[in-house]
Amino acid sequence: MPTVTCPACDARNRIPAERNPGEGKCGKCHAPLFAGKPLPLTTARFRSHVSGTEIPLLVDFWAPWCGPCRTMAPAFESTAREFEPQVRFAKVDTDAEPELGAQYNIRSIPTLVLFKNGQEAARISGALPAGELRRWIAAHL
Question: pTM value?
């Protein structure tokens, strides 16, 4: 039974194996567990989403002023719709959350970091078109 962290209230939820995770709702706040779009994360919420789920978490470390980040944003969002609930997609604004950028040694943006079971499993820097992003995700799942 996989565990998933609610994107609305951060409560941990167990999804029975016989149920479709994409249709799951939070047992606490009743919000959908997957919305098909990236979840903005703050430092306060980051740890519960990295370690509180058995579903891989793909984090886009970005900044609002970054042209390549803005260019890649639509591809990241469309890919989220395709891959959820197999992968949770999140975004961390490194200007608003500089301690997370420092903690994960983010030296250039955009940088994508894939976490599995609370640990970094893969990383790539630079803006990726949707097709390349899909291939990179599939290669690391």
Answer: 0.94
